[in-house]
TrEMBL record:
SMART domains hit by this protein: ALAD
The reaction(s) this protein catalyses: 2 5-aminolevulinate = porphobilinogen + 2 H2O + H(+)
Protein name, as recorded: Delta-aminolevulinic acid dehydratase
Active site: K196 (schiff-base intermediate with substrate), K254 (schiff-base intermediate with substrate)
Quaternary structure and interacting proteins, as annotated: Homooctamer.
Keywords on record: Heme biosynthesis, Lyase, Magnesium, Metal-binding, Porphyrin biosynthesis
Pathway membership, UniProt: Porphyrin-containing compound metabolism; protoporphyrin-IX biosynthesis; coproporphyrinogen-III from 5-aminolevulinate: step 1/4
Originating species: Aurantibacter aestuarii
Origin superkingdom: Bacteria
The enzyme's E.C. designation: 4.2.1.24
Length: 329
């Protein structure tokens, strides 16, 4: 007796393995998150994100040219706002000469064909570190939506190709889409953070932007009244389908690795591209383990991004994008 099928034949050499490999990673898979700060000549390493930096505009220009030369053609911009410019209503976010608006122009000047996406949420501008406007101790859904539409318009007027609302208010995709259509921005895309969970993996990101919710009386201590409960699955489908109905072009699941079951379900359920955000805590975890010599950094990194793509990601937002592309070439 011999085994009727020997699956190991397809694993006998790298040549045959690569011939039958189902999931291939390329630079086209990645969206590169970038952190921007005021100043000149600034390239600050983020303490909880080794080898990841905040750039001032002059060095942002250098960085995006390098990304472009590596075949990385899409960026997602975040700004670190000085405390003095933060308030409850996010007024600075609408400043046509604000850091985000200048960052968009900087990238577009440096690399006109680079796809520029911007994070749309109040938290970096909020004195309370929340994604919306606080009213009577809660994050006001509808006031925030109005604000997000204005913020999106401001980014698009500065040259953004896509806006990426990451706030999880109800109905914000509709508000933003309506504002864009009304102003004639019919080609502007919306990448909705549609299934965004209230996750403890966002810690290093909040360090990077100094945007964590404050610990203050009458202010919610966390984001659980708008970001999703990580125990939930059906809710992710509902959120995603609603965002598509409201006008989202790309939907997203966030974080990545702990949520690949959700990614696959959404991929099977919808007909728009699905993005996955491999978030700051996922990055930090691998960097820390590799630093200790407990994990092989490059091997685990490739395994992780491949798993994300295999689960159904059409787009991977990842702090590893450059590391991956260097390894590929
Ligand atoms: C802001 C925003 C967050 C992230 C992306 N956009 C933080 C949060 O919701 O608190 C997290 C990204 C990461 O951890 O890498 N709304």
């Amino acid at each position: 007796m011999y085994p009727l099928r020997r699956n190991r034949r397809l694993r006998t050499s790298e040549a045959i393995r690569s011939l039958v490999r189902e999931t291939i990673i390329s630079p086209n898979d990645f969206l590169v998150p970038l952190f921007v700060v005021e100043g000149k000549g600034v390239k600050e390493e983020i303490a909880s994100m080794p080898n990841y930096y905040r750039y001032s505009l002059d060095l942002l220009e250098k960085e995006v040219k390098e990304l472009w030369s590596m075949g990385l053609k899409s960026v997602l911009l975040f700004v670190k706002v000085p405390d003095a410019l933060k308030d409850n209503a996010g007024k600075e976010a609408l400043n046509p000469e604000g850091l985000m608006q200048r960052a968009i122009k900087t990238v577009k000047n440096a690399c006109p064909d680079m796809l520029v996406m911007t994070d749309v949420a109040l938290d970096p501008y909020s004195q309370y570190g929340h994604d919306g406007i606080i009213e009577n101790g809660v994050v006001s859904n509808d006031k925030t939506n109005q604000f997000l539409a204005e913020m999106s318009l401001s980014h698009v007027k500065a040259g953004a190709n896509f806006v990426a609302p990451s706030d999880m208010m109800d109905g914000r995709i509709l508000s933003i889409r309506e504002a864009l259509e009304t102003e004639g921005f019919t080609d502007t895309g919306i990448m909705s953070y549609s299934a965004k969970y209230a996750s403890s993996f966002y810690g290093p990101f909040r360090d990077a932007l100094d945007s964590a919710p404050v610990d203050m009386m009458d202010i919610p201590k966390d984001k659980k009244t708008y970001q999703m409960d990580y125990a939930n699955r059906f809710e992710a489908i509902k959120e995603t389908e609603m965002d598509i109905d409201e006008g989202a072009d790309i939907v997203m699941v966030k974080p990545g690795l702990c949520y690949l079951d959700i990614v696959r379900e959404i991929k099977n359920a919808v007909d728009v591209p699905v993005a996955v955000y491999q978030v700051s805590g996922e990055y930090a975890m691998l960097k820390a383990a590799a630093e200790k010599g407990w994990l092989n950094h490059d091997a685990v990194m490739m395994e992780q991004v491949t798993a994300i793509k295999r689960a159904g990601a059409d787009v991977i937002a990842s702090y590893f994008a450059k590391d991956v592309v260097k390894l590929l070439s």
